[in-house]
Design a protein that fits this description.
single chain, about 120 residues
Length: about 120
């Protein structure tokens, strides 16, 4: 069982920034690591993902140009930098990972993000 530890959520005013962190316990070799979010009134959706080998990234349309997902240089960890936040970004953000494409069997506990207007 892979354990994921998240941090970095909190409260911020609209237009502000937050950085979320997610670290996996070693040893673990992921195929992909991703962030999902659950915002009020909507289904859970993927925010962004990064393929571990090669660093290829994907962003959902609402994250394009505002969020940046990147890997830690030495650990199995990722960071999600979120800029120009709006109240619509409020929700619980989850880190997830897996060893094969499209599968995310391992999840973090979630971290709350609150953006006030």
């Amino acid at each position: 069982q892979v354990q994921l530890t998240e941090s970095g959520g909190g409260s911020v005013q609209a237009g502000g920034s937050l950085r979320l962190s997610c670290a996996a316990d070693d040893p673990f070799s992921p195929y992909v690591m991703a962030w999902f979010r659950q915002v009020p009134g909507k289904e859970r959706e993927m925010v962004a993902s990064i393929r571990w080998n090669g660093g290829y990234t994907w962003y959902n349309h609402f994250a394009e140009g505002r969020f940046n997902l990147f890997k830690d240089a030495g650990k199995v960890a990722v960071f999600l930098e979120m800029n120009s936040l709006t109240p619509e970004d409020t929700g619980v953000y989850y880190c997830a990972t897996g060893r094969v494409p499209g599968k995310y069997p391992y999840w973090g506990q979630g971290t709350q993000v609150i953006v006030s207007s």
